[in-house]
Each structure stands twice: as structure tokens, then as C-alpha cells.
Amino acid sequence: MAYDEGLAERIRQRLGADPDVAEKRMFGGIAFLLRGNMAVGVTGDDLMVRVGPDATDAALARPGARLFDMTGRPMKGWVVVAGSAVTEDEPLGEWIEEGYAFASGLPAK
């Protein structure tokens, strides 16, 4: 499955040259990992965000968000945001910051 390279590039620009961030192909797209833990990614035209179990309900209340479910088993703590909901830099930046903040609280892998 191809992924939106333009969205991936916007994420790269937002994350800058953080030496703790690495890219890895995952879920048919690309993931951005902070010290080995996924923070955000792109699958198809959509943004994946790791928000954590405690923030899932609040994240799902935001425009374009749905549970991450690729196998028929939804993953609490992960959401997918429709690409149409992150066409502007502000909402994209908010989602990236949320994913980065959650991943930064996890032990490095």
C-alpha cells in the first residue's frame, strides 16, 4: 500500500532534525519513532497517532479521528486521523505533538 509522501514530508519538517527520531516502514506506510517507540505515522492518506489508552476517548472526539484498526481488533491508545482533517499545519502539528509527547514518556527500546 502506498502512503501520502507529502504528509510524511510535512511530518519530517515538523519533527526537524531530532536525533532521537527514526523512520521505519510499518503498517503499509511509514512510522516516525521516538527512541524506538512509534509516535506518529502515515498509512494511505491518513495520519496514525499513538495517544495512549488514557487519551483515546478525547482523541476520538476530535475531527476526523477513528480507532486504529487494521486487523479487526481496534487498538486502544492508537488513532487514525483522516488526511482531510490534517491539511492545515495547525491540526497536524497538534496531533504530532500529542504523539511525540506520549512516546517521550515511554522507555527507549
Automatic annotation (TrEMBL):
Q: Which Pfam families match?
A: TfoX_N (PF04993)
Looking at the record, the residues that make up the TfoX N-terminal domain are 19-103
For this protein, the record's SUPFAM superfamilies field holds: YgaC/TfoX-N like
What name has this protein been given in UniProt? TfoX/Sxy family protein
The organism's taxonomic lineage, starting at the top: Bacteria, Bacillati, Actinomycetota, Actinomycetes, Kitasatosporales
